């Protein structure tokens, strides 16, 4: 069967739980079999963790699940220190970082594209600028705003991947709408934070489970 990226069938939508701050939520994510766990280092995020907190959470994550460090205009020395100590599998940049900044750490990275207020042609023009990116994450917030806001954009405006580069969908996803989002946008992966929370950084176990189950049902429906 044709595969995309990590050896899964095309119909296997990857799942990233982002903004985890508690050990019990990491354990729940692992039990549910998510593909990525996101730890937030963006300074203004309500889900930000310290490096020491991140190291404690990272120690719980098995090898088969990738740790993603989310950044937004963090100083270069801070990022370098985090990379050396935490050793994340991926970096995810949400700020005004240019391509040279993103690739200097020798870690695969995803670049977040703010979809709020942007036209499809403008979005398409941004992608070649980050030719070294391992993937792109399309989020509902506006340019210059932080992710994790729960803002939804028109999923029909998400570009269609043609080069095999992973495209992930984010922004306002929840157990109640993720199946529709997958049907409309056909993303390689989905990224959720606020949609599985009871409060910022505090995940809800039932919402987490409901989200994963909804994604798997959507995969089955897509064949």
TrEMBL record:
PANTHER family: N-(5'-PHOSPHORIBOSYL)ANTHRANILATE ISOMERASE
This protein's record includes keyword Isomerase: yes
Domain N-(5'phosphoribosyl) anthranilate isomerase (PRAI): start-end pairs: 16-213
Designated gene of the protein: trpF
Lineage summary: Bacteria, Pseudomonadati, Pseudomonadota, Gammaproteobacteria, Lysobacterales
Protein name: N-(5'-phosphoribosyl)anthranilate isomerase
GO molecular function: phosphoribosylanthranilate isomerase activity
GO terms classed as biological process: L-tryptophan biosynthetic process
InterPro entries: Aldolase_TIM, PRAI_dom, RibuloseP-bd_barrel, TrpF_fam
